[in-house]
């Protein structure tokens, strides 16, 4: 009888201990708009694996790719309200809340991505992180969305005159719209998840994106021409909702910060490698690739600098230009 009683008590203790462990487990959701194979997704998966390993499975990060949780703008709203925990989001969507992010996309500001990373890993990045925290999001890292180029189904774009009148899809990002309109394009905003069909059906003639996005979303299947305009840089801010962040212990916050640093290194590495090889891959798939008259494009987009220097973020614009040079 005593043995049976001891066994029952022991079983109850084990059960209660198991419940306590289950209750202490934390599940976080990470949403992003990229497809599997994109550097953003691969880095998100690594982040989830590192967090799980560092916490012995106590914190589990579930990755939802391909805009399963809505577009980037919807995910920013969800982050701030606490209904989404983490997102590898777009520069444009976050710029709608923190306008200074748009400045990173000034036309032809960076000659290569590494110069952009140096800027983001320094005082400018720290400043952006403070502004982001004030809007309810914590920056875990600045991921890379590469240098952007234009594709279309009509003709090779070698000079600004070639883009005039083309219907070009842009994200809902004011800087991108300003650049394309300065070049004479008819800009239209379409969700990235709907872009392939819009191009296929001729709703728009073309679009602009980094090579990694063009490849992973298979836009080359419905676009004949790729013009290496290199007109702007974009980051992918890797952010966590402050409400979710504040629910974590300092020790767990440190774990996420460390895992994010590893994921940031991987994402940047994969993004750079993709850019270096994808032009050849896309050419092999039948895309016609051409270079552009860079000076003509720089001259055509000078009004964008004038507009933004005189705008509400003017002081930040001047600071970024100075440090980028």
Here the CATH topology equals D-Maltodextrin-Binding Protein, domain 2
Total discrete domains: 1
The count of DSSP E runs of length 2 or more, i.e. the number of strands, is 9
Distance between the termini: 83 Å
DSSP helical segment count = 15
Q: What structural category characterises the helix and strand content?
A: alpha/beta
CATH class: Alpha Beta
**Residue share in helices?**
40-55%
**What is the N-to-C order of secondary-structure elements (H for helix, E for strand)?**
HEHEHEHHHEHEHEHEHEHHEHHH
Largest sheet: 9 strands, mixed
Whole-number mean pLDDT: 92
Q: Indicate the low-confidence ranges by residue numbers.
A: 5-23
Specify the CATH homologous superfamily: Bacterial extracellular solute-binding protein, family 7
Q: Judging from the principal axes of the Cα atoms, what is the shape?
A: globular
Rg, Cα atoms, Å: 23 Å
Beta-strand content bin = 15-25%
CATH 2nd-level architecture: 3-Layer(aba) Sandwich
Structure overview:
The chain has 325 residues and is of the alpha/beta class. It has one domain (26-324): 3-Layer(aba) Sandwich (D-Maltodextrin-Binding Protein, domain 2), CATH 3.40.190.170. It contains 15 helices and nine strands. Strands 1, 2, 3, 4, 5, 6, 7, 8 and 9 form a nine-stranded mixed β-sheet that branches. α2 runs antiparallel to α12 (250-284). The chain is globular. The chain starts with a helix and ends with a helix.
């Amino acid at each position: 009888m005593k043995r049976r009683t001891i066994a029952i008590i022991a079983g109850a203790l084990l059960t209660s201990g198991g419940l306590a462990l289950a209750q202490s487990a934390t599940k976080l959701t990470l949403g992003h708009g990229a497809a599997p194979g994109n550097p953003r997704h691969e880095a998100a998966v690594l982040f989830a694996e590192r967090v799980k390993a560092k916490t012995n499975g106590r914190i589990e990060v579930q990755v939802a790719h391909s805009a399963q949780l809505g577009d980037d703008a919807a995910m920013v709203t969800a982050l701030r309200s606490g209904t989404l925990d983490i997102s590898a989001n777009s520069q444009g969507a976050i710029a709608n809340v923190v306008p200074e992010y748009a400045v990173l996309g000034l036309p032809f500001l960076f000659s290569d991505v590494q110069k952009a990373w140096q800027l983001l890993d320094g005082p400018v990045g720290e400043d952006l992180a403070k502004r982001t925290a004030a809007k309810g999001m914590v920056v875990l890292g600045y991921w890379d969305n590469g240098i952007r180029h234009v594709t279309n189904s009509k003709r090779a774009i070698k000079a600004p005159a070639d883009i005039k009148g083309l219907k070009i899809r842009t994200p809902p990002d004011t800087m991108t719209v300003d650049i394309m309109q300065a070049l004479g394009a008819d800009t239209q905003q379409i969700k990235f998840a709907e872009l392939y069909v819009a191009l296929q059906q001729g709703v728009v003639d073309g679009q602009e994106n980094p090579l990694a996005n063009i490849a992973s979303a298979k836009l080359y299947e419905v676009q004949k021409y790729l013009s290496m305009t290199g007109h702007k840089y974009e980051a992918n801010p890797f952010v966590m909702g402050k409400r979710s962040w504040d629910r974590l212990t300092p020790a767990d916050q440190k774990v996420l910060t460390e895992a994010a640093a590893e994921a940031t290194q991987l994402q940047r590495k994969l993004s750079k490698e993709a850019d270096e090889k994808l032009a050849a891959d896309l050419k092999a798939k039948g895309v016609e690739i051409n270079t552009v008259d860079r000076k003509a494009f720089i001259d055509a987009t000078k009004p964008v600098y004038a507009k933004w220097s005189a705008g509400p973020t003017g002081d930040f614009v001047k600071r970024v230009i100075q440090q980028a040079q």
